[in-house]
Design brief:
two-stranded antiparallel ribbon, 5-stranded mixed sheet, alpha+beta, Immunoglobulin-like
Amino acid sequence: MSKKMILLVVMSFLMISLSKAQTPYDTIDVNIDYLEPLITVPNAFTPNGDGLNDYFYPFIYYNYPIIKYELRIFSINGQQVFYTTDPYARWGGDQVDMATIHNYSKSFVYYLYVQFSNGVSKKLRGSFLLLII
């Protein structure tokens, strides 16, 4: 049999097999092994209740559990407006006196400390904007 004929037979068989298949796709599980912690922090958020970017929180990707976590948020004039040791807590700009703070500042500073069970720790500092739209 020639190569062209074999290829035609194989292609026909493949097309028939795919047309009889219930689902033409499959799933695969991928485990990503992070050698170093990957922590990303947004530079802005919009707490307007639309369900998109309503809260400020860091995204933490690493293969080890968090054993110590500290997030502090300060207004630009140094007043602490949020503090948590819960890695799942989110800040929505909803402190009691936020109306006064928003009048003076829509820019905030964060300090983040995370320690993992394998001894690795990360400290991050930066700023972000609270956008009212």
